[in-house]
Each structure stands twice: as C-alpha cells, then as structure tokens.
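Thread: quick sanity check before group meeting

JM: Hey all, I'm pulling together slides for Thursday and realized we never actually wrote out the predicted structure for the chain we discussed last week. Dropping the sequence here so it's in one place. If anyone has concerns about the input, flag it before I start.
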Amino acid sequence: MIIINLKNYKIGKEVFDFVKKIEIYYNKAIIAVPAIELSDCVKNVGPNMQVYAQHVDYNEKGKGTGFVVPESLINAGVVGSLLNHSEHKISMTEIRKTMKRCNEAGLKIIVCCSSLREAIQIKKLNPYAMAFEDKKLIATGKSITEHRQHDIKKFAELLKDSSIIPLCGAGISSGEDVAHALLLGCKGVLVSSVVANSQTPEKFLKEVQGIL
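JM (edit): ok, ran it. Output follows.
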C-alpha cells in the first residue's frame, strides 16, 4: 500500500494533471488531495485508485462553520481520510470523537502517530490503518526506516494481533526505503515530497512497482 499525500504542493488543474501522471506509473495508489479538489479528483481517477481527504473533523452536520464533516466527504465519493498528520496534529480526545463519527459514517481512517505511546492509545480505536512518522524527518530525504528502525519494528509488532494496517512515513525517497519498511514489518508507506514535490515523480513510482 502506498499513500501519496499531495499536501498543498499542487492546486487546481495542477492536482488533476499530476494525479493522472501518477496513475500512469502506479495506478493502485491512495491519493490524499486538498479538500477543495476532492470531488473532481474522484470523478477523474481510474477504478484502481482511491481518493482520500487530508483531514476530517468530528463535527455533526449543521452548525460548525469551516469544518469538514464525514458525510460531506462520503457524498463527494471519498473513500477515507488521513487524521492527526504531524502537520495537522489534534488531541487524543479529538481523535476519539472523529474516529467514532467516521466509523458510524463508514469512512476509512488512516491515523498518523509519532510515538509508540500514541500508537498504543490509537490502536484501541481500531482505525483502518496507522502511519508511524517523525516530523523532523519529513521532506529531508533522511528516511524514517533508517533513523527510527527500532521504533518502527516495535510499532509493527504492536499491530500484529489486530486488523490495523501498519504504515510508516517521513523522508522516504527510494524503492530501497520502501523495501526496508516492509522488512521492518510495515505493509506500506505514506509519502509526499518524493512524489508531489518532485520534477520526476515517475522515478520513485517505477522503483516501487515491483515492491508494493
């Protein structure tokens, strides 16, 4: 499994053109795109690609100006959402409330965590997947699979007795990094800049074709 978070590296038509480019080289990816582009992306991707939101809120339909509720994502055809990304951290109380709402609505959630302690708490909420990340390594080219090996291995072992898919991300920039993630026990990776902020995203996507 590979999740490509476009963050806000691309906007408007850039998003659609870029997603189409990704689809040529790796059409099984999960793409997390800016909220305003979600509906159009869903309509324009092939059947094998899944579109995810980058964040979702626990608010109910009705009052709550500016919040993205699960029902609006589902209505747009979105499959799931990232939650608690290191660039958009929320409290454990908010994670619990959001997970409850999304489970009721049928929206898959990939929850990010930055420590084993946090991972233990989130595991109890039974998300679809969890991604172990390190904010200090994001966009550095220094892979978490090299610099946090021990923690990733313990994280993957923590999820062995559950249905939660273990992922990792931060600084992953080569097929070798992805292969290392799998050796450490993860079932996939969460990436961004190596694809979304690259002039040659096909290089990385071609490398991972035979790995994931």
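AS: nice. Residues 113 and 132 are 5 Å apart (CA to CA). The chain has a mean pLDDT of 94.
JM: adding both to the slides.
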